């Protein structure tokens, strides 16, 4: 087993704050300043790039609604049947994943109970544990208000042998930030297992990670955390025990919990969504389709695999891309509900919108790049005996293709209903209800079954909800779920539109 090397603060040669952008600015300052007409053209170009996706999505809604207004009743019936059937499929797949998650949840609770009975004596002796590099990735100035708090928490609270772990604070900033940077560097004098790295020329999380992956640290595992996370003190130990128990595991993805659920109505809904995703959908999908995914934070990698794959800086969601590249090579990813971390949800709708648009475009990029895994042959397999099964291929098909197409199915159904409201505006609430849900007899059964699937999924979510989520929040989430689906689908369309115009700005989420 490799031993951790002696860590010190990395000093960047010459001026650590001097970047390629600074060089370009300095060079341009010696030349004639650009004309006002050049500035105007640049502003117009940026305006067009920002607003073209909005115009595309708005035009899509207007055109689709108008088209349905002029369709015959027979054609409308066909469209209605297609949309209700696809909605039924999505609801059915979701509830199947939810039921599949029951077993992993029970196993996680059983393991915790056994650990409590043994006075928290874990199976592996401390001296035999794997060497771990835990990375806290920060983007300044967005996270300047929280980075010291999270760094001190990780250094003081994480329960793992100090000679087997290094807490690495990776950060980048476009300008000097004092006294914060000095305070960060001082951590290495107070804590022997601390390492602070300022990444020169970095403009993204991928740049920060790739810089670290060029360093030879001697670790067996690398854990990745966004700066807003509080890892549970035992999370690293739970993750490492999974690696020790199964030598074929390459990635362990933990559960992310929103801890500011009570701050606003928006954060409470995101908290329920995260419980549904991380405690239900992810472990259920892994059981159902036979593969898991690294989700960007609270994930543990074998160092050799991560150093080989690295992060693709051209992808807006480099984490999903790396997870899919790992899966394409037969890497084994497991979801462990005991590997828990607590994070912040966006508190305002603009911040939420910006974050989800980046995710939507990133997923679109990753889906286009990796959908070929549905039909191609695995190459450079990590585990010689592994091969991509039919079930796994269909899971990828569902995750990358059906999920992206579902944005159009949901929004087309919405446009169809809007056309009904315009052409046959109901005069009473009962007429509206019948118009929206029971336009055709088969709709009754498809609608009722879909509602049952939703209730079952949220009931299972309620059984595994975090301590920050109340039953009232889950009820509220279920009531606004139709609106949530339409909003999510619209964001998905917006992400596609951004991809069409090749929008490439990486917009980090502000943290306070």
Query: CATH superfamily assignment?
Result: Spore Coat Polysaccharide Biosynthesis Protein SpsA, Chain A
Q: The biggest beta sheet, please?
A: 8 strands, mixed
How many separate domains make up the residues? 1
* Rg over CA atoms: 25 Å
Give the helix proportion (percent range): 55-70%
Region (Disordered): 18-38
Subcellular location: Membrane
Domain Glycosyltransferase 2-like: 222-420
InterPro entries: Glyco_trans_2-like, Glycosyltr_2/OpgH_subfam, Nucleotide-diphossugar_trans
Could you provide a short overview of the structure?
GO terms for molecular function: glycosyltransferase activity. With 512 residues, the protein is of the alpha/beta class.
Essential attributes:
512 residues; transferase; Spore Coat Polysaccharide Biosynthesis Protein SpsA, Chain A; eight-stranded mixed sheet
Task: Provide structural commentary.
- The N terminus is likely disordered.
- The chain has 17 helices and eight strands.
- The protein is of the alpha/beta class and 512 residues long.
- It has a single domain, classed as Spore Coat Polysaccharide Biosynthesis Protein SpsA, Chain A, CATH 3.90.550.
- Strands 3-2-1-4-7-6-8-5 form an eight-stranded mixed β-sheet.
- Helix 9 packs across helix 15.
């Amino acid at each position: 087993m490799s031993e951790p090397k002696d860590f010190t603060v990395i000093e960047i040669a010459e001026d650590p704050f001097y970047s390629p952008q600074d060089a370009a600015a300095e060079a341009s300052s010696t030349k004639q300043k650009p004309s006002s007409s050049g500035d105007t053209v640049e502003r117009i170009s940026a305006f067009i790039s920002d607003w073209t996706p909005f115009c595309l999505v708005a035009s899509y809604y207007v055109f689709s609604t108008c088209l349905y207004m002029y369709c015959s009743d027979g054609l409308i019936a066909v469209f209605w049947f297609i949309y209700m059937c696809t909605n039924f499929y999505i609801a059915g797949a979701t509830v199947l994943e939810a039921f599949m998650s029951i077993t992993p949840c029970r196993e996680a609770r059983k393991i915790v109970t056994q650990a409590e009975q043994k006075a928290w004596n874990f199976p592996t002796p401390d001296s035999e544990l794997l060497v771990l590099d835990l990375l806290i990735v920060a983007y300044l100035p967005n996270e300047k208000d929280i980075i010291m708090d999270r760094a001190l928490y990780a250094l003081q609270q994480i329960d793992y042998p100090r000679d087997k772990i290094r807490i690495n604070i990776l950060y980048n900033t476009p300008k000097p930030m004092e006294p914060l940077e000095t305070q960060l560097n001082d951590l290495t004098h107070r804590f022997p297992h601390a390492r602070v790295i300022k990444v020169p020329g970095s403009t993204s999380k991928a740049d920060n990670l790739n810089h670290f992956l060029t360093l030879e640290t001697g670790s067996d595992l690398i854990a990745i955390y966004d700066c807003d996370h509080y890892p549970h003190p035992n999370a690293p130990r739970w993750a490492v025990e999974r690696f020790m128990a199964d030598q074929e595991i390459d990635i362990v993805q933990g559960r992310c919990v929103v801890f500011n659920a009570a701050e606003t109505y928006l954060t409470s809904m995101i908290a329920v969504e995260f419980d549904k995703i991380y405690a239900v959908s992810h472990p259920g999908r892994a059981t159902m389709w036979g593969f898991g995914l690294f989700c960007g934070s609270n994930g543990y990698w074998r160092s050799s695999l991560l150093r080989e794959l690295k992060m693709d800086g051209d992808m807006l969601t480099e984490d999903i891309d790396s997870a899919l590249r790992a899966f394409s090579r037969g890497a084994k990813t497991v979801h462990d509900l005991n590997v828990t971390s607590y994070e912040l949800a966006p508190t305002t709708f603009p911040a939420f919108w910006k974050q989800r648009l980046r995710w939507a475009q990133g997923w679109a990029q990753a889906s286009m790049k990796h959908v070929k895994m549905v039909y191609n042959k695995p190459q450079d397999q990590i585990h010689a005996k592994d091969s991509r099964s039919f079930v796994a291929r269909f899971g990828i098909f569902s995750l990358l293709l059906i999920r992206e197409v579902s944005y159009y199915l949901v929004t087309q159904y919405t446009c169809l209903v809007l056309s009904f409201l315009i052409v046959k505006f109901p005069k009473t609430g009962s007429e509206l209800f019948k118009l929206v849900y029971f336009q055709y007899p088969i709709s009754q059964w498809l609608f009722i079954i879909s509602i049952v699937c939703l209730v079952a999924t949220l009931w299972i979510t309620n059984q595994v909800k975090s301590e920050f989520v109340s039953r009232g929040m889950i009820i509220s989430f279920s009531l606004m779920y139709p609106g949530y689906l339409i909003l999510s689908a619209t964001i998905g369309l917006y992400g596609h539109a951004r991809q069409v115009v090749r929008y490439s700005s990486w917009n980090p989420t502000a943290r306070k």
